[in-house]
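Example 5.3 — Peptide transporter
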Amino acid sequence: MSTKIRPIKCPNCGSEKHIQLDEKLYRCKNCGTEYFLDDDDITIHVKHHFDDGGFTRIKGDANVSMSNAIRAFVIIGGVLFFLFCIMLFGFHSSSPDLSSDDSLNVDDTYKAIVPVKHDGRVCFFYLTDRRFHNTFYNNRTSSNGYYYGFIDPDSGKVLADKLLISDDDARKIGMTAFHMLEIQHLNQAKKWYITIPSQFILEIDPQTLTLKNVSKTIFANKKAMSSGISSVAFISDTYEDHASTAGVGEGFKVTNNMAETYYYFPATDRLYTEEAYEYAQQLPASELNGEVHDSVFYILDRKEASESSSQKGLNRLWRIRFMYHLGDPQDAGYFLYGVTDTPRGDGRMISHNAITDWFAGFNTKIDYQDSKYILIEYNASISEDAPTVLQLRNTNGVILWTHSLELPMKIGGIIRDNQKIWFRATKENSETDDEHYIASLTLKEGYLKYEYKFATEHKILKQ
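Solution (predicted structure tokens):
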């Protein structure tokens, strides 16, 4: 039987334009369908599926084509949804129990972290510059600004988290220098205060878990301050070897808007002029009005490690007994240039004596002291990478334990309960954000534990 010659047409679209792939295999130039000739029955057979550089053009039976298309879109859609979920939740894994419906994504830059006591238990106060992520899934309803809160260090539970002031309101009143804030606990007043340059005073109340601006109310009964505050700062100890509680008074140096400077002491609610303040500092204990205590504090006497060295690497602890006038001016800077037999200051010192021999340590300082314990911080060498060493002694100078931290660590804000010493530990990073921790040391063994890490990127519940 002879072969009949007929035009070769694409069975799918009817086009006669084609490419011959093999002896009897063709591909349509118009629609891409592959087909071949059968000599026995002179028919054309269609090859519906082929590989064209990874792209498949679906033709032929409409039902089959639609089914394949739907299946492809379902698979691709599922993959894209999975990747979206990873992007949405993967970067905020610090709060896995919060869904996007009831939480907001935030960045926190901490300005203050200090331990306080709430209902007799240690908790940590924080003040942070908070930025809310402005993304379509956040449904942002909260303001960027400065927030504060309190955290239970044992459980990590946030006891309170509140807005102090929004960015817009802070700019309106000039409360913007949060990077220069100072925070102190005034022992005699039994109050925590924060100063923010140049004219703001805030009071932390751990019992009510609140922070409030008292810049106007704190001087409500003082006519001399009726013009308002132009600048305020803590009256602080300027002598590096002295404990902060033994400085020149627990109060504020404040200047009003008439350029007049005063010294204010919250414990006694007394406002002194500069002249009266300098006079009251030097009064003997017999002439002081109000309550006077026979008090004790500890200082470090330091000297060079060797005759050829300028580094102070040898230290001694000294006990100082003095008459402390509660909440009023004093000058307890008795040893400005090291411990000598000719102390200076307000003349209220009763006695002073060394309680330890010389011991080695660089950049040594007293981090904490009370009626039972003295916590000392130092570096074992002058190397910049030397780890931080913490040492606990009793008030007779006896070493109870010495603990070396793995990395250099900045220690701040220390408080003690019956079992532990609590503090803020900061790992400073030059290329990334500093890392802030709540850390504890057991009183008995000095066992160090990082109890909680303050997350800089995390989720919070919607207000």
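Remark. Residues 18-90 form one domain.
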